[in-house]
Structure formats: C-alpha cells, structure tokens
Fold this sequence. Notes:
By secondary structure, this protein is of the alpha+beta class. It contains 6 helices and 8 strands. The protein has a domain at 32-180.
Amino acid sequence: MRRLKVGTDAIESIAVFVVLCMAHQAQAQAATAAYPNMAPVEQYLMDRTAEIALARSAAPDSISRDATVLVLGRQGYETAVEGKNGFVCIVARAWTATFDWPEYWNPKVRAADCMNPQSARSILPVVSLRTRMAIAGHSKAAIEAAIETAYEKKELPNLETGAMDYMMSRPSYLTGQRGHNMAHLMFYLPFTDGKDWGSGAAGSRLCPVRIGSCHRRNSSRKGCRRFW
C-alpha cells in the first residue's frame, strides 16, 4: 500500500516516512490490477469485532490494548474503544494511499495501523478527512483539492515531531501485489535526503517515501516539488 499523501504549499515542513522495505523491489515489478472506480460502500466495511481485532494487531499488545480504536462506518471512522495511552489504532483503506496508485479504490485493502499520540494528532485528521470524502463518493481530484484547501486554511494540523505508526500486523492486506503485506514501521520527519539514511544501498531495507507537495497550480515554483 503506497501510503498517505498530505500537502499544500502552505506546509513548511514537507514530511517523509521511512519504512522497513521488505518487498519494495518485488512490488515495483509486480503487475497490479487497476481499480478505476469506487466499489459499493459495503465492500469496504468490516464486522466491527473483526475490525477492532485487526486494528489492534498493528502494534504489540502492550501498546494496542490501551489504545483508542476506530472502526469504519458509513460516514467515516467512529470510536469503537476509548483508549488511555494516546495511541489510536485503525484499519486504513486503500484511499489513504497516493492518488495515482492503481489500487486506490481496491476494496480488499485492510491496513492495520496504530498511530502514536503525535501521529494521531497530526496524521489521523488527514486520514479521517480523506475517508469521509471517499466514502461519501467524492472523486480523487475533489479529495486532493479539499486536503490542500484545508491546509491552506489551517484546518489541518502541521506535522508533529516524533510522529510514527506501527503497521506490523500479519493479517493486514496492503496490496493485491505479491505477498499482500509488508509489515513495517513508519516515521514522519521533516524532508531529508534518503541517502542520509542509507536508502538505496545494497542490503538496506529503508525506503524513504516523501509525502507532501506544493499546490498543483504552483508546482513549477523554485524549490517547490511534487512528491510520490
């Protein structure tokens, strides 16, 4: 699952998340069936008890058992369990991925994700907005525009230092590509050069994925680059 894109030219700190890239090269070469349109909403929904269990499986029990758990309803995410440690666990759907991903509307995607408090405060609001709009039937273009507008109006928070996610669930379904899963951790950081992390070096499993962009209308501005 190619993960969340956030962005507008109003954001000073373009973020990057680094994952344990266990099958990155294989996935890049694998053929992926396209999902051009959203499937019926029912195909994205889960049994509530099963969704809670899958969401919690993203992180060690010592963390997830005291986390808040959200489940997907017909209007967006709903609180199923009130936590007490600041972590929030969800099962993300494919529409939290990059907008040009062929599996953006894949109803099979079930990405268990436990966000730490910083991520819950600064990344989860973006996931929630994208989800509400997707499940209401909005187009990718409309969702992307709404996110950019929300950042410009400061209706979405800036990235918090220390934001990270656990995505270590064994039964997660991240992609229709070979293996379906890629257990990893995500760390959200101010934009940096992947080479500083050893990304791309032989044997390295670190994959920096830049998230964030300048507004499309201003993408030619000096120093303003569109990522993914």
